User: Fold this.
Amino acid sequence: MTRYKERTVHLYFRGDAAFASPDIYEYLEAEGMLYAIRLPANKVLQESIAHLLRRPVGRPPNHVRLDYASFSCQAGSWDRKRRVIAKVEWHPDQLYPTVGFIVTDLSRPAEPVVAFFNHQRTAEQWIKEGKNAVKWTRLSCRKFRNNEVRLQLHALAYNLANFMRTLALPKAVEDWSLASLREKLVKIGAKIFAHGRYVTSQLAEVAGSHDQFQKILRWIDELRPTTFAAG
Assistant:
């Protein structure tokens, strides 16, 4: 935390219901961090949005109906009132709504706060992919600075792989994970034949076809910046 404070950056915290603790709220507020943490539902919270929990009159629509609410609440273990955001989803095939609560010190409207919180799942997927594909948790050096450099190199490799996935993959394989990309394109085995004037690589087509691999190589080559001769 001290290292982050030395930099002029805004600090945000997102957490699931396991972090719904007064000690955590008080710590984040004392440190000046903005947070959004899921709250387990209870009777008091549900009573605060009772008007949104009544099933709408008439035939339900074919799409999901969303309602948001923002109100102040103070649980028995809290030392003060805090802002709570509620999201109510009415699905066409469900008799009762899906309800979620978030405690936050953000001043944004309710819907952007929920969107900010939902980005946690996306971030978790990125972290999981980095751990599995790039192995960026292998930080076994004894000094913090050395591990910091190793993590930066892992992050660079992760970003380069993401650029390749975004800019140089055919549509048929554009949804490959980074782990699949590594195993099927980067670390795949090949047989090398050296001739007098050229070298031939033979790869199995188990992971990808010849045409796909050729297209990927061509697109990577086209990413090079074009140089113009001086006139």
User: Anything to note?
Assistant: The mean pLDDT is 84. The first strand starts at residue 12 and ends at 15. The two ends are 54 Å apart (CA to CA).
